[in-house]
Amino acid sequence: MTLHSVRKLRRGLMALVIALPALYVLFAGIAIWQDYHSTIRQAESDVRNIATTLSEHALRTFGETDIRLRAVISEIEGRGLTPTADHERALHQILAVALQDAPEVGGMGILSPDGWMRASASVYPMRPVNSRDREYYAYLSLHPERGMHISRSVQSRSSGKWSIPVARRLDNPDGSLRMIASFGVDMAYFDRVYRRLQLGESSRLLLVRRDGWVIMETPLTVEALNRNLAATQLFRSLQQAPTGVFQNERSIVDGSARVVGYASLPESQVIAVASVARDEILKPWVTHSLQIAGIGALSTLLLLGLLRSLWLRLDDLEATQEGLARRNQELDAARRRFQELVDGIDGVVWEATLPNFHFTYVSGNAEAITGHGAEQWVEDPHFWRDKLCTGPDGKQAEPALVIGGPGLFKPVEHHILAPDGREIWLRSNIMLADASVGRMHVRGVTIDITGQKESEQQLFQAIHVDSLTRLPNRHALVDSAGHALALAQHNQSIVAIVLIDIDNFNTLNDSLGHEPGDEVLVQVAQRLQGCLGPTDMLARMGGDEFAVVMEEVDRVALKVEHLAERINAAFKRKIPVEGRELYLTVSMGIALFPQDGLDYQALVRNADTALYRAKAAGRNGWQFFDHSMARQVEHRLDMETALRQAIEHEEFRLYYQPQLSLQDGGIVGAEALVRWERPGVGKVPTQEFIDLAEESGFIVALGNWVLRTACNQAVAWSRAGLNLRIAVNVSVVQLRQPDFVDQVRYALALSGLSSHRLELEITEGAFIADILGTLDKLHQIKAMGVELAVDDFGTGYSSLSYLKQMPVDRLKIDQSFVRDIPHNPNDCAIVRAILAMASNLNLQVIAEGVESEEQLEFLRAEGCQEIQGYFLSRPLSPENFSSRFVASGRAPGGRTVDGASASAGGTR
Predict the structure, then answer these.
(1) How far apart are CA 138 and CA 160, in angstroms?
(2) Which residue, 474, 541, 694, 761, could crosslink 545 as a Cys pair with Cβ 3.0–4.6 Å?
(3) Helix%, strand%, coil% for the chain, nearest 5
């Protein structure tokens, strides 16, 4: 097809695009318009027929009612009855008989000339009812003719039902009004009949008197019965024809456009009207019109889509003709670019024939990547086998070729030796080419992955080797242990996991520094390595913890014990570090597979439990795991969990032991002692939960709580008149916290306690790990005005150089020295020495654990300033302490503060 033909066809397509939718719109519009008029005409015919039917039904209904009414009047005249009390019974019977078999009649009554209803078909005897307000009474009382009168609708005063009264007048012989008889046609009767027609939700059926008043409407509304239509289009149309139809653009019924049909028979007093909303009539027309429009739109879209497809095909034809020459030029340029690209790629691009991998094409960069030129690849028919597939170790690396059609094979890695002696790692990605043109051949790209292999080796070292000791790390241990356990399960043999921990390494690391500590770890690793057998594996778990995996352990684990003995013996030799010679010990925990666990996690957990037992037993030894240890660990975990919840649940209580001045006999202070009442367990031994709190680190939160609570209690006592010094014990762990000084300052500010009334009791062990940091914090606290005391003096390191630097106010003699005085001369000598030293250093001394008068007198005689102990009082709750000591803070005359003599001291 020529270019001219293509353009001519395109113009024809454009004309079709315009003409076809326009024709469809024209014909569819005509059809919709005709359908509209047909729908309206049919609706007009329907409502006119319905109105005619209603008119006939109304004429028949009112006619039958009038027949009954005339029969009643005839019988009343024949019997000469009057609307009086004497004739009420007879009138009631006549009306009741007439009401039988009359479903359309809702009620019947007789009105006297003065407008009172004197008889009823439904009630006898009846109470007269004033009915002068009824429209039919007003009309008939003024019109002496004896014709039937259809009244406006009324609502029953007794039942509330609506009815249309049909009434006649009965006169006396002289022409005066004798009575009025009325039958009420039940409007519900009309409503039931009309509703059975099912004309639609918007339909309205009316009965209208010839004077314009509406007497019936379905659906019934009270507003309609008060409406007069004499001035509406209905009566204007009625003047032109007794039966007809018209359209009302704004109906007085609901304001909508309606199609109205009416009918009135000449002999009838009412006009029947039927109307339907034009929107409801037109719903099928709207639906049909939308269907036509939708079909037209869909057809137009399909046509446009088809024409657009043809248009695009023409574009393609035109573009194809114009592009053929241009593509030929581009192919030549692409060939040149391909060659340049292949030569510049970071890999050797090649093609070879099967089955011997004889290279037929090799890119020019082969020598830069492999050290062998492209000519050597092509000229040597065995280059693949001799150079690429044979590594320095002589092993072959043949690719697994599956001849099943074109596709990629699994990459082949080559470890070759370049002509210059370099070891090179290569990877060949190979693809089987289409073999339909002759011999089968493959294509591939060979790239240098030497750097990647070196990175993988470095990554493996980083993941599996400890950087400090060059031992396998935790990851490598998990892999090795998993392999050993799988093999042991298969062979039904025993495997041992030995955890090794350096005793007191943290103290050594803090004292020497981290670099000497690392040197110690390296030497420890070397000594441990020297203790192992050929199949044992040593790994560093982290920190100062190591682990050994032993395979093929004997049934009684003698092999493991011998290893533990060798390790123990190895550390009896000194370890030289930076000119020093250190002695180290290690603790070991041992767990055996399968009796102590079936997987790595369980074995390590149980070995760690045994290690904890070895440390608790004094360190420098080993322990095998047994199941009693697991129960102890469970108890410890339970205690730790409960301990962390105890403050939140308010399970801790503070008790206070008074401190007595031996100089004036007055209570000068109280030591705060924490107690734990655990729900469901009872009192927990103090030393047990304090030790656990220090090991777990919870002692920091507990100590801060004790400090704040004790300060608040001291302020409360002060308000009650008891001004005391409050003594609070401080843990070594607490003192090491960076914010310890801030916590003390916060407790004083929160409680409002004067700083000189707070005393912190610190043990001598607090100065061993960090003497400079501890002294700095103590000087800051002393600068606040807080007093400091050394607790349990004489039982710790008792370094006089530390004591000289410490800003302390008071020494507390430990109760172990007080217990046997004055009978034990050694304890007496120690107490005298402490008192003498304190006197020379201007320090106060308080003795704790005083339980007898002999002890008190000895301490008084030797110059001790204060005491506390059971002789004075047990620790008391805040309430008991207040009730006992708030009355008097002194004990004059050598008597205790509660009035008892000193010789009658308290008992345990």
Answers:
(1) 22
(2) 541
(3) 45, 25, 30
**Model pLDDT, residue 748:** 93
Of 786, 793, 799, which is closest to residue 753 (Cα–Cα)? 786
Helices 505-512/514-530 angle, 10° precision: 140
pLDDT, residue 324, reads: 67
Q: Are 741 and 777 in contact (CB under 8 A)?
A: yes
pLDDT tens per residue, range 127-186:
888 888 888 888 888 887 768 889 888 887 777 788 899 999 988 888 888 999 998 888
- The phi, psi pair for 410, rounded to 5°, reads -60, 130
Q: Is the peptide bond before 381 cis (omega within 30 degrees of 0)?
A: no
Cα dihedral sign, 310-311-314-315: negative
Residue 121: HSE in the Cβ half-sphere, 13 Å Cα cutoff: 20
Q: How far apart are CA 246 and CA 256, in angstroms?
A: 14
CA-CA distance, 351 to 484, in Å (whole number)?
A: 47
Say how far residue 847 (Cα) sits from the centre of its chain.
59
Low pLDDT (below 70) residues in the chain: 1-7, 10, 146, 198, 253, 321-322, 324-325, 339-340, 343-344, 390-408, 434-438, 627-636, 638, 764-771, 794-802, 887-908
Distance, in Å, from the CA atom of 812 to the CA atom of 791, rounded to the nearest integer, reads: 5
What whole-number distance in Å separates Cα of residue 412 and Cα of residue 670?
A: 83
Q: Are 457 and 425 in contact (CB under 8 A)?
A: no
pLDDT score for 122? 82
- N-terminal to C-terminal alpha carbon distance within the chain: 123
Structure tokens at 522: 């390296």
Q: What pLDDT is attached to residue 720?
A: 87
- Report strand pairing: 622-624 vs 586-593: parallel
Q: What distances in angstroms separate CA 676 from CA 642, 655, 692, 800, one per listed residue?
A: 11, 11, 13, 36
Contact in structure between 468 and 518 (CB atoms under 8 Å) = yes
Q: Hey, what are 621's tokens?
A: 């030894």
- Residue 402 in contact with residue 416, Cβ under 8 Å? no
Rounded to a whole number, what is the largest CA-CA distance in the chain?
Answer: 158
